Amino acid sequence: MIKKLIGVRNHSLQIFINWQRLEVRGKRVDTLLVFECRVYYTLMPVSQLLSKTDVKKCLPTLSNISNLNTGGQKQVFKAHIGSETVAVKFVQIEVNGNNIIDETALDRVLREIKIINSLNSANLPKTCSVIPGFFRTNNAAYYYYGEKFINGYSVSQLITARRISYREAKQMLVDVTTAIKFLWESDEHIVHRDIKPSNIVYSNDDGVYVLIDAGLALAMHDVSLTPTGMVVGTLSYMSPEQIKGKKRELDFRSDLYSLGVTVYQAITQKHPYCQMRMSDSELQKAILFTKPTRLETFGLSGFPAGFLSIIETLLNKRPHQRFNSCDKLLGGISVL
Amino acid sequence: MLLAQYGHQPTSKIGEALRQNIVDGVILCPRFNQPEKLREITKQLRESFPAKEVIFDPNFYVFAIPSVSRIGKLVSYPFYYPSLRRTDFSTKKVTEYTKKVLEYQIKNDFTKIISPGLIFPSFDSAWAQITLQLFSESIDFVKSNSVKKDLLLTLVINEAALREDEQLSDFLDALTTLEAKGFYLIVDRSTDLPQWSDPGTLAGLLYLVNSLSKNGYKVILGYTDLVGLLTTAVGADSIANGWWKSLKLFSRSQFYDRSGGQRPRVTYTSEKLLNSVFVDPELQAIVESGFGGEVLSGTGSDNALSVNPAQQTWSQDNAALHHWKVVKSLLGKINQSDEEARLDQVESLIREAQTLYTRLRGVGIDFDTISGPSYLRTWLEAITVYKEGL
Question: B215: distance to nearest CA of chain A, Å?
Answer without folding.
Answer: 6
